[in-house]
Amino acid sequence: MIKLAIDAMGGDFAPEAIVKGVNLAIEEYKDIELTLFGDEKAINEYLVPSERVKIIHAPRKVDMGEKDPIGEIRRNRDTSLVMAFQAVKDKIVDGVVTAGPTQGTIAAAHLVIRRIKGMKRVALCPTLPNLGGKSRLLLDVGANVELRSEHIVQLAEYATIYLKETSKLEKPLVGLLNIGSEPGKGREVDKETFKLLSEDPNVNFFGNIEPKELFFTECDILITDGFTGNMVMKTSEGVAKMVGKYFKDEIKKSFRAKIGYFFMKNVFKGFKKSMNPDEIGGSNLFGVDGVVVKAHGASSAYAFSKAINQARLAVNGGVVAKMKAVIGDNEDDE
Questions:
Q1: Could you identify which of 106, 128, 134, 311 might form a hypothetical disulfide with 293, taking C-beta atoms 3.0 to 4.6 angstroms apart as the criterion?
Q2: pTM exceeds 0.70 for this model
Q3: Higher pLDDT, 285 or 256
């Protein structure tokens, strides 16, 4: 059985959406056991009883608007977020899923679970919308503002292992986000990263990718520093919202446009579904000694069940152990 901890109090709609997501996941995935950390009375209002679900009472939570997440994690070890992460640290469970605040999640990962020995940085890694016939990983998107070339390479190795084990891609293709596709483009860190990725036997490196190719490239993994990745991700989200609003406004303007929409309705529905974050679940936090999935703060029950499946797949694939082996091999080479 795959054992996961659930922060039942994290998220904008907790505990209702979280617990209902647990109900969906337990019904869908027969190989999981879930431990919910949160207010027991509130959880039981929505929980469908199951032998594969247990509750550990943790009435306190980390607020979504917490201004000092590091201080909160250090001071208050009895919140649902910290207790769920401690279960990973103590090897009671194999991974954790939370829809709590992003910075609180990253802080708890660092302070409670801690990084894999030899892992220089962690990275927040979402899955991009499925456009052009495939999904792609983008990292880092905010766990680190700056990264050195060796950090980026290590994260590319981790993402490669993750996709191999969860998507069954034999050789995931890695692209380095840059201002130009030619070798030699970008900052010094980009040039150094390009060289290291080209020489790394653990990475199937494609080369530089310009951001305009984000949703069209054949690459499966797009790698960059946290500042750039966050800017790219949020810009993409803004463009998607703008496109949706533009079509909605234009359709309302004339009868002809409304007729056109009638015939194109399924196309628009398909586009909306492909851009819907509920279909993805959440972002992986790569680099800590246990599986961590950060679900969207506004997760619906369906979206949270998808985030649980992400953690399930990573645990089932032994992703953390396989990254430890790569780090060990690299240290031996040194």
A1: 311
A2: yes
A3: 285
Residues 165-210: pLDDT tens digits? 998 788 999 999 999 989 888 899 999 999 999 999 999 999 999 9
Quickly state the pLDDT bin for 271 (edges 50, 70, 90).
low
CA geometry: angle at 291 spanning 111 and 145, to 5°? 55
Residues 134 and 230 placed together within one structural domain of the fold: yes
Across the range 83-100, mean pLDDT stands at: 96
The answer as to whether 2 is a domain residue is yes
Residues 148 and 271 in one domain: yes
Confirm whether 17 is domain-assigned: yes
Total domains in the chain come to: 2
Whole domain around residue 148: which residue ranges? 120-279
Looking at 231, 253, 279, which one is the last position of a domain? 279
Q: Can you give the pLDDT at residue 276?
A: 60
Q: Are 165 and 317 in contact (CB under 8 A)?
A: yes
On whether residue 242 sits in a domain, the answer given is yes
